[in-house]
Each structure stands twice: as C-alpha cells, then as structure tokens.
Amino acid sequence: MQVLMDDAEFRDIQRVAREKKMTVAEWVRQVLRAARRQEPRARSEKRFDVVREAACHSFPTGDIGPMLSEIEGGYLDDGDS
C-alpha cells in the first residue's frame, strides 16, 4: 500500500510514532486496525440514531385489523370503482 501525504503531515506521524516507540508502519497498522474495528459499530450507531430520531415523532396510525382489510381489499379491487 502506498499513501501520499505532504511532508508536514508525515513529520507529525513520525513524531507520534516515535513518542509511542513504534515504527511509522506499525503505528499506521494499529491505527487502521482500530478504525476498522470502529466501522461496523459506527454504522450501527448511525442506524440507531435514525430510529431514535423517528421515535421522537408522532405519526398517524390505525388498528392493524382494519388496515390489513383495506390492503387486502385493494388487492382484490378490480379497478372499476
């Protein structure tokens, strides 16, 4: 893998790796592994945030029985109405 960055950014990464007594390559591997572990969780959190937000709203609802009858009636309707 090759990653291109400007000199200042690379020097910052070198400094951080040196402070942690690691090579740049090892530091990058560890950071990428941590980011990869977070990715599925981040997607799940986003989904939960959407559900939480939707739960804050009030939407019109109906009883399931009549709703299903109306749906079924729509399937059975021949369109002449």
Uncertain segments are none
Number of helical regions: 3
**CA-based gyration radius:** 27 Å
Report the strand count. Answer: 0
Q: Distance between termini?
A: 65 Å
Q: Give the topology string: H per helix, E per strand.
A: HHH
Please tell me the total number of domains. Answer: 1
Category by helix and strand content: mainly alpha
What is the residue-mean pLDDT, rounded to a whole number? 87
How would you sum up the global shape?
Answer: rod-shaped
What is the topology?
Elements: H1 7-19, H2 24-55, H3 64-76
List keywords for this structure.
single chain, 81 residues, mainly alpha, rod-shaped
Write structural notes for this entry.
With 81 residues, the protein is mainly alpha-helical. It has one domain (1-57). The protein has 3 helices and no strands. The protein has helices at 7-19, 24-55, 64-76. The chain starts with 6 loop residues before the first helix and ends in a 5-residue tail after the last helix. The model has no long low-confidence stretch (mean pLDDT 87).
